[in-house]
Design goal:
Length: about 250
C-alpha cells in the first residue's frame, strides 16, 4: 500500500536520496526546498513527485507549503525533517547573534513547526513515522560550529520527547545522525576547516577520517536506505532511538 511522505529540504543531496528511495518503493512523495531549480530537475526525473518551493526560514511559507502538501497527499504517514544549514565556521566568541539565530531558526524552529502541523495527520495514520535528521555534531560536538552543533543536539531531545508523547498514538520517532557525507558539501566544510586552521585540505581530510573505523565518507544512499528501513514494517518496534551512520566515528578532533 502506498504511503504518503513529506520530506523537507528534499530537492538535492541527502534529501533527494531519501525521496528517491520512497518513490522507488511506490510511495507518494511531497518534497519542499528553497531551490526551485533543484525541484524542477527532480520532477523531470520523477513525474509523480509533488514539489513546492519554500524558504523554511519563513514560518508563513511553511504553513502555506504544508497546506499544499495536505491537498496533494491527502494526509501524512511519514515525515522526514531534513532541514538544516551549517552556519559560519568561526570560534564561539566570533559568532554573531544574527548568525546564531539564523541557524537555530532554520534547524530547530522550522522543524518544530512542520512537525507540529503534521502531528494531527500522523495520528490519523495507521502507523505514523517521524524521522529527524540530526548529525554527528549532535553526538560529539563540533568545534567552530557552535550554533550547528547546538541545533543538532537539540534535535536529540526533540526526538526522544516526541517519541514518549506520541507512542500512545502509534507514532514512532527516531533521529538519524550522519557523519561526513560524501559529496560537494563535505569538501566545502573541510576547506573551511582548513582555512581556519591554516593548513591544507588534504591534511584536514586525512584527519577527518583518522578517528573512525571505516576510512571513507558516508554514502548518502545508505542514509536513505536507513530511512526506508525504520519507516517500514520491519522497524515497527524502533522508536526514540538515536541512530548514528558515520563509519564508527570516535571523535571529531
Amino acid at each position: 500500500m502506498s504511503r504518503k511522505v513529506l520530506i523537507s529540504a528534499g530537492g538535492s543531496g541527502i534529501g533527494r536520496c531519501i525521496a528517491e528511495v520512497f518513490l522507488n518503493n511506490h510511495d507518494e512523495v511531497f518534497v519542499c526546498d528553497i531551490s526551485a531549480k533543484s525541484l524542477e530537475q527532480f520532477q523531470q526525473d520523477y513525474s509523480k513527485l509533488h514539489v513546492h518551493t519554500c524558504d523554511l526560514a519563513d514560518h508563513e511559507q511553511i504553513k502555506l507549503m504544508f497546506n499544499q502538501a495536505i491537498q496533494k497527499l491527502g494526509g501524512i504517514d511519514i515525515l522526514v525533517n531534513n532541514t538544516g544549514i551549517s552556519g559560519p565556521t568561526v570560534a564561539a566568541d566570533e559568532l554573531s547573534f544574527d548568525d546564531w539565530n539564523t541557524v537555530i531558526n532554520l534547524n530547530l524552529n522550522s522543524t518544530f513547526l512542520i512537525t507540529q502541523l503534521a502531528i494531527p495527520h500522523l495520528k490519523k495514520a495507521q502507523a505514523g513515522v517521524i524521522i529527524n535528521m540530526s548529525s554527528i555534531a549532535g553526538r560529539l560536538g563540533y568545534p567552530y560550529r557552535l550554533a550547528y552543533s547546538t541545533s543538532k543536539w537539540g534535535l536529540i531531545g526533540f526526538t526522544k520527547t516526541l517519541s514518549m508523547e506520541l507512542g500512545a498514538d502509534n507514532i514512532r520517532v527516531n533521529a538519524i545522525l550522519p557523519g561526513a557525507v560524501d559529496g560537494d558539501r563535505v569538501q566545502r566544510v573541510l576547506q573551511a576547516r582548513a582555512d581556519v586552521a591554516h593548513t591544507s585540505l588534504e591534511e584536514v581530510t586525512q584527519n577527518a577520517l583518522k578517528n573512525q573505523s571505516l576510512k571513507y565518507f558516508v554514502n548518502p544512499k545508505h542514509i536513505a536506505d536507513l530511512c526506508l528501513f525504520i519507516a517500514s514494517d520491519s522497524g515497527r518496534s524502533i522508536s526514540g532511538q538515536i541512530l548514528p551512520i558515520d563509519g564508527d566515528k570516535q571523535c571529531l578532533s
